[in-house]
Design goal:
Mean pLDDT: 93
Helix content: 40-55%
Subunit structure: Interacts with ribosomal protein uL14 (rplN).
CATH class: Alpha Beta
Keywords: Cytoplasm, Repressor, Translation regulation
CATH topology: Beta Polymerase, domain 2
Low-confidence stretches: none
Number of strands: 6
Pfam families: RsfS (PF02410)
Subcellular location: Cytoplasm
Order of helices and strands: HEEHEEEHHEH
Largest sheet: 6 strands, mixed
Number of helices: 5
Shape: globular
Strand order of the largest sheet: 3-4-5-2-1-6
Number of domains: 1
CATH superfamily: Beta Polymerase, domain 2
CATH architecture: 2-Layer Sandwich
Oligomer: single chain
Distance between the termini: 36 Å
Structural class: alpha+beta
GO molecular function: ribosomal large subunit binding
């Protein structure tokens, strides 16, 4: 894994914020060996423009609330709500409408890069509760 500790922290926090807003197909890709400009891509999808924008807002808020605050240096695509890019230098967050996610297939484009494991904490809690018989 080539991502820095900071990039890992940002990616996991952003992924959890996206999951909290019911983002789909959340993937963190370690692109550090392939790109000099960032360590990781976070990809997330939503079925409509309103949810795309809600996920983007949640990611921004979550990263601003970290002990070492993070603000995007660039934000693109917000007007259409189909594909919003948040550039945090260490990570780049792509929140796409489901149709754009399928069409542009960033997952396939970067398929040779390793992924960084992410498990939604709510899902993990539910599975733990089910496993303990609660």
């Amino acid at each position: 894994m080539t991502v820095s500790e900071r990039a890992h922290e940002l990616a996991i926090a952003a992924a959890q914020a996206a999951a909290d807003k019911k983002a789909q197909d959340i993937v963190i890709i370690d692109v550090g060996d392939q790109l000099a400009i960032t360590d990781a891509f976070l990809l997330a999808a939503a079925p409509n423009e309103r949810q795309v924008l809600a996920i983007v807002d949640a990611v921004e808020e979550a990263l601003l609330n970290l002990p070492e605050k993070a603000k995007p240096v660039r934000r693109e695509g917000e007007r259409g709500g189909r594909w919003v890019l948040l550039d945090y230098v260490d990570i780049v967050v792509h929140v796409q409408h489901t149709e754009e996610r399928e069409f542009y297939a960033l997952d396939r484009l970067w398929k040779d890069c390793p992924t960084i494991p992410f498990v939604d904490r709510d899902l993990a809690s539910a599975e733990a509760a089910a496993g303990s018989g609660e």
